[in-house]
Design a protein that fits this description.
Keywords: Signal. The protein has 263 residues and is of the alpha+beta class. It has 6 helices and 9 strands; from the N terminus they run αααβββββββββααα. Helix content is 30%, strand content 33%.
């Protein structure tokens, strides 16, 4: 349904701005901005969190330095939705990074996402038939996503590579607001009432939208991850020797939930 598009845009920012492990450890390591993490490091999660903070600003525009590039993550265009604005993010590994098994579990939060795009809506809400087609804009505060990534190792030309085979996502929204233009064929009073009704009754339709959104996002980012993974071997991603890990140095906290807020 086209009405789901704004939510696809919101959660695209949550996921992509968090730079999944394939972005910050799976690229060819001649890029000096990439810090490999040893597979047997007893503090692997700490190493990975340090690495993501180092490379995250570069992934916004896609230039990792030393001639290496990735698709830019802001603005993200998806299904006629353009997403930009905040590049704040928070990511927590829950002691579940298992490089030998190609297994990662993450809990992601984003303080605010600003989005805009186009919509087509036919919605029956509290006996009111709300219809419209046009442009939309809005924001989402305190969005969260629990992400599980599973993969496998395989041989290619005598070398061992990695690909992700499954990515699942569970999404929670806390606060968001929509402004849909041209509801009721541009009738100002009805449009204002329709927008207020939609924003005041989010729970009535989010349960129908979110499952499709979760599946769509998982497929999108699984494809992106595997495109990047094709360029690095398993040993390049996670060298067998121990990585010396410095204490985590987080940037100044932004407004929003704590980075270690309990899911």
């Amino acid at each position: 349904r086209a009405v789901a598009n704004p939510f696809i845009a919101m959660l695209s920012c949550v996921v992509l701005c968090c730079d999944f492990p394939e972005h910050w450890v799976c690229l060819p390591f001649t890029a000096s901005s990439i810090t490999p993490c040893a597979r047997d490091d007893p503090q692997l999660e700490r190493c990975i969190i340090n690495a993501v903070y180092q490379v995250r600003p570069l992934l916004v525009h896609g230039d990792l330095g030393d001639g290496y590039h990735t698709p830019p993550l802001e603005p993200l265009q998806l299904d006629n939705i353009e997403l930009g604005g905040s590049s704040q993010f928070q990511a927590v590994f829950m002691d579940l990074a298992k490089p030998e098994d190609i297994s990662y579990d993450l809990w992601l939060t984003l303080p605010r996402i600003v989005f805009n795009g186009k919509y087509f809506m036919r919605l029956n809400l509290l006996l009111l038939d709300i219809q419209g087609k046009g442009t939309m804009r809005g924001y989402c505060d305190s969005a969260k996503a629990a992400v599980k990534m599973r993969g496998t190792r395989y041989l290619r030309n005598g070398l061992e590579y990695v690909k992700f085979t499954k990515m699942t996502m569970r999404i929670q929204f806390k606060d968001f607001k929509l402004q849909l233009d041209n509801l009721f064929n541009g009738n100002g009073l009805l449009g204002e009432a329709g927008n207020a009704l939609i924003n005041d009754n989010q729970d009535l339709y989010l349960n129908e939208i979110v499952p499709g959104l979760e599946r769509g996002l998982s497929k999108k980012f699984l494809d992106v991850a595997n495109e990047i993974l094709a360029t690095a071997t398993f040993d390049e991603m996670f060298p067998p020797s121990r990585t010396i890990v410095n204490p985590i140095a987080f940037p100044a906290p932004a407004a929003g939930p704590s980075i270690f807020e309990t899911p």
